[in-house]
Amino acid sequence: MASMSTVFPKSTSFLSQPLTKPHKSDSITTSISFPSYSRNRNLTTLRVRAGLIEPDGGKLVDLVVSEPRRREKKHEAADLPKVRLTVIDLQWMHVLSEGWASPLRGFMRESEFLQTLHFNLLNLDDGSVVNMSVPIVLAIDDQQKTLIGESKRVSLVDSDDNPIAILNDIEIYKHPKEERIARTWGTTAPGLPYVEEAITNAGDWLIGGDLEVLEPVKYNDGLDRFRLSPFELRKELEKRGADAVFAFQLRNPVHNGHALLMTDTRRRLLEMGYKNPILLLHPLGGFTKADDVPLSWRMKQHEKVLEDGVLDPETTVVSIFPSPMLYAGPTEVQWHAKARINAGANFYIVGRDPAGMAHPVEKRDLYDADHGKKVLSMAPGLERLNILPFRVAAYDKTQGKMAFFDPSRAQDFLFISGTKMRALAKNRENPPDGFMCPGGWKVLVDYYDSLTVTGNTKLPEKIPV
């Protein structure tokens, strides 16, 4: 658990107002059509416009207490009832504190929770809506509820009881676990990773309120320089002169098929008339399930991808997205897209079965592979974001490299699944030349080499960053 400046225990940066529509004077309409999903048609003529997209609500939320007031706030926190945060709670506090969930200003009160759970949106005071598809809530148990009593404020503390935030004007309400799970995941089947980690054994009450975070969140794991807030990302993107930002989320190593998609997207944006499209390569940095490659190894692999020239460092910003992973498919992918609006992205690349997983009980995928991109095209509050569906890439045996799949010569293509990729790395076998850059593949092989057997459990060893 972290302490403040909030610090995580040890385990490289590449660098609420009403919504407003862009003024016509801010943009020019190109005559080039770009394949993109919209709520009314599958092919839209997009606008080339100067400047970054506005955040949800018109203004980024910053919930970190200003430095001159921190000593005073820490004294206040010391005298308040305490709620101890789990690691995942602290990851969500990090998300809230930096404005990824703007215009949300703290853990959800009941009205916000119900709007999110049942409508995938939040209503703003001016009558407009913003997308919000996953509940960001804080659970407490009966004992904590009793200790809070009639207090309207609580101190949020880490595992060592160090105050790290204050929750103000609190509201405590029932935690409808079954309803929350069913609405978020579409199933209550046992074995959902996030549910087992963060919900099943959590308290039967939820506490919401306005958040004041006492210091910026730091993890002290060698990766903090990659953790750029939405404000910092916008500053970096403006510094680079970005006139379009296309975001690519991932929780896996980058192979050359991913790189082909990202470089082709930039080419298409240039053809549209954009002068300097910038890629936001944005790996997820919060909770992931046990068989995913750990964040430190993924970041090391991403570095090699840039070092080997697979992606251009001049037009790529690599940063860590601090959110936990829910594996909630079409529901969760809306959250991933919405958060990138707040970071300045106006294009979002979406692939097959985004945020999906295998069904925890049955031998099938939990979600339809196409529903994620379809839902994004219709989701309320995401109308300003241009959704870019994946083009299918596979290994072209005739060219010896990753290429876009051509169904007229399907026999020439080899599909290498994530399962196959992991099996090759575990067995120290090489994939076909051109599947992944050699430096990136070596990192993946080294990771699986580092797994040490303890009984029947394989544990990843930590690596130097």
Automatic annotation (TrEMBL):
The UniProt entry's GO CC annotations, sorted and at most eight, read: chloroplast
Nucleotide-binding as UniProt keyword: yes
Among the GO biological process terms of this entry, one is: sulfate assimilation
- Sulphate adenylyltransferase catalytic domain location, by residue? 225-446
**Do the record's keywords include Transferase?**
yes
- Reaction(s) catalyzed by this protein? sulfate + ATP + H(+) = adenosine 5'-phosphosulfate + diphosphate
For this protein, the Enzyme Commission number is: 2.7.7.4
Q: What is its main location?
A: plastid
Which keywords are on file for this protein? Answer: ATP-binding, Chloroplast, Nucleotide-binding, Nucleotidyltransferase, Plastid, Transferase, Transit peptide
Which pathway is it part of? Sulfur metabolism; hydrogen sulfide biosynthesis; sulfite from sulfate: step 1/3
- Tell me, what's a Pfam family for it? ATP-sulfurylase
Q: What class of enzyme is it?
A: transferase
The protein's GO terms of the molecular function aspect are: adenylylsulfate kinase activity; ATP binding; sulfate adenylyltransferase (ATP) activity
Ranges of residues in domain ATP-sulfurylase PUA-like: 53-215
The protein's location, in the record's own words, is: Plastid, Chloroplast
> Assembly and partners?
Homotetramer.
What PANTHER family does the entry give?
Answer: ATP-SULFURYLASE 3, CHLOROPLASTIC, BIFUNCTIONAL 3'-PHOSPHOADENOSINE 5'-PHOSPHOSULFATE SYNTHASE
Q: Which family does it belong to?
A: Belongs to the sulfate adenylyltransferase family.
Query: Which named protein is this?
Result: sulfate adenylyltransferase
